Amino acid sequence: MSFTYQQALEFLNTLQSKGIRPGLKNIALALARFGNPQFQFPAVHIGGTNGKGSTAAITANILKTAGYKVGLFTSPHLHSVRERIQINSQHISQADFASMVKEIKDGLSIDLTYFEFLTLMAFFYFAQNKVDIGVIEVGLGGRLDATNLLLPKVTIVTNVHLDHQHWLGRSLKSIALEKGGIIKYNTPFITGVKQKDLISLLQKICKLKNASFYQIGADIRYRRGKHGFSYFGLKRHLSHLKLGLKGEYQIKNATLALGAIEVLEKVGFTVKDKHIQKGLKSVSWPGRFEVITSSPKVILDVAHNPAGAMALKKNLSSYNKNLVLILGIMQDKNIKKIMKILAPLAQIVIVTSPQTPRAAKAELLSNIAKNYCSHIKIIPSVSQAITTALSIATSNDLVLVTGSLYTVAEAREALRLRCLGK
């Protein structure tokens, strides 16, 4: 009996009710049932509070440019679940997606969550398609994340900030321990963590596991210039590099990716300077300080926690424009702190709620925003918030949509439909 893409989506959506269930027992049993596909390709494993998806995208694009067949597994997705599983920048096809969901569903009696099922599916798909390497983003935390049964060639933790405290612990130290759980024995580790006490903690884990420790600012460095940036690595020194992603924090993510490339070269991967240059310049990662239009300038950014909001604020400092800010934030996030960082930058704040039960009510956001901006508008739907912002903004203004991936996803779709309607 045929199994359609729509049926596959409907089955996967039934798994959403299982929620988040940290632990490796069930995913380990499921992977074993399908021949442990995670051991059938080398991998780069990337965790961290912010920037892990961008770092994964940059790493994968450089390796693809160098001629390798590269699997990329990321989460969450903006518009389609197929975005999460890619080979050489191509999303898994609807037909392959449906057939793999059916094969795994029919061959498995183990109870998996939505994310565990997709992790198994990605690893199985990469193994079946004989990728040269997989670039794998951690879903949540690290130690008990479903992706943590890999045996990677290099691991990365981009940074550690407060987020998902319900699952990872209330302190930065506890969160760092969870994220440091991806460090493997005898496997090089790279980090962009800045806090001295957390660096010391991660160094201790590496020492216990005989894992080489490399840190931005010490072992690998970058310097931003007027026309790009320079990279000072373990052996490489590259100048006048241009990155397809905007924002200084993306240069830091690119530096982590370049560190990983240098580690991979030690185990047989060949990547020339020209591949790095082209891979950096051509990379794209939607929703991360993404400029959609120029008049007025519309920017989308998925900053969903205080650290992400601070990075976004820093990027905005180079824009001398009146700001119309559209904010939609999840109710389980640190709304007050995100608002305190971003709302004072705006002349007008439009609060809204994307279509998910996790979203904070626009009225709640409005009550908090009033402390930081005198001009607040409550617009319940994201698409209508976009229409309102564009009707208010002049051609010289900046419209920024942020606060959540859900908000950005709905805004991107609304802007796409708006462009099609013109």
Automatic annotation (TrEMBL):
Q: Name one GO cellular component term.
A: cytoplasm
- The portions of this protein that span the membrane are none
Mur ligase central domain sequence ranges: 46-260
User: Out of the domains of life, which is the source?
Assistant: Bacteria
Involved pathway(s)? Cofactor biosynthesis; tetrahydrofolylpolyglutamate biosynthesis; Cofactor biosynthesis; tetrahydrofolate biosynthesis; 7,8-dihydrofolate from 2-amino-4-hydroxy-6-hydroxymethyl-7,8-dihydropteridine diphosphate and 4-aminobenzoate: step 2/2
Its EC number is 6.3.2.12, 6.3.2.17
> Which keywords describe this protein according to UniProt?
ATP-binding, Folate biosynthesis, Ligase, Magnesium, Metal-binding, Nucleotide-binding
Which GO biological process entries does UniProt record here? folic acid biosynthetic process; tetrahydrofolate biosynthetic process
Spell out the PANTHER family in the cross-references.
DIHYDROFOLATE SYNTHETASE-RELATED, FOLYLPOLYGLUTAMATE SYNTHASE-RELATED
* The family this protein is said to belong to: Belongs to the folylpolyglutamate synthase family.
> What does the record note on quaternary structure?
Monomer.
Recorded hits in NCBIfam families, A to Z, give: folC
Q: What is this protein called?
A: Dihydrofolate synthase/folylpolyglutamate synthase
Q: Which organism is it from?
A: Desulfofervidus auxilii
